[in-house]
Amino acid sequence: MEQNWFFPPHDGVRLGDLANALGAELLDPSAAARMVRNVAPVYRAKDGDICYMLSRKSKSELETCQATAILCDKALASIVPAHIAVLQTSRAHMAFALAGEILQPAAMRPALTTSEPAGISALAYVDPTARLEPGVVVEPMAVIGADVEVGAGTRIGPGVVLGPGVKIGRDCTIAAGAKLQCALVGNRVILHPGASVGQDGFGYGPGPKGGMVKIVQVGRVIIQDDVEIGANTTIDRGTMDDTVIGEGTKIDNQVQIGHNVRIGRHCGIVSKVGIAGSARIGDGVMIGGAAGINGHITIGDGVQIAAMSGVVADIPAGERYGGIPARPMRDFLRDVAEMTMRSANRSKKTGDNE
Predict the structure, then answer these.
(1) Beta strands 131-132 and 286-287, pairing class
(2) Residue 331 phi/psi, 5° resolution?
(3) What CATH code is assigned to 13-108?
(4) 306 in Cβ contact with 327 (< 8 Å)
(5) CA 223/CA 225 separation, integer angstroms
(6) Do domains 13-108 and 112-259 have the same CATH topology?
(7) Maximum CA extent, the chain
(8) What does the subunit section of this Swiss-Prot or TrEMBL entry state (predicted)?
């Protein structure tokens, strides 16, 4: 890959210092003074890069690897070429993520769009009743509504709209084009471009002539600390209760979260997931891409849901489910195996009859 000017290399971190910061063991102490400047995949890592390896499947990629260092566990250290320093750790994936944060801090949250001095742009609108702590950045064309509160160190990107009474905590990033209303947001929250939070939930009752009558949506959205919300994700406000996103939860792009949904702490929700109104999601739940979650059901703590699943009923804590309708993973995989075998048998019979 050609030089990436969007994320230039770090000035350099001594490998020994990096190992200490990551809690990894540098197997060759004589390599401690080598400098690491960037992260890279194994197959094209060059001098100054650090990469990571999780299994022997990457062994062939080591043939072209010229990295300064590689993160891996004890079982893989022996296959690393002698010219690459080994940082041994049982959590190579996590250590690599931390290395990226050290070497590419600017990539950890959406960057400022304009190069004008930090502060409140003359091209933004800030209502006179809004209260912004020192150090808030407001970029051009942002609109800060009446009685909004924004904490120190928060960045408000271009075209962002904060509706009346919205509260944003400290050190948050609200990226270009995001829109919030009826929302209370904690500290260190990231909203990527185009995210929409706090709009009406989808609620209608039967009308007198067969149509639908709108049900008012007068709840809020509460987003706790350290949440990250992807581009073009939508989170509806509650009907009369609150929609809640728990501390540390990470939500991918293009996810739809309905009214009154409550999501626990440290969940991971992948792109195109749809969660219908009043669903309850426990702590540490992982939901694969394009899964659909029925409304008014409960997903227990630690549940894992496979991509493309359709969840129609409660799932007990700690279970792994998949399929449509979603069922325990062992049952889902058995059903898939049976269908595959039947299909193969039908194909064989068709071939024999030709």
Answers:
(1) unpaired
(2) -70, -40
(3) 3.40.1390.10
(4) no
(5) 7
(6) no
(7) 82
(8) Homotrimer.
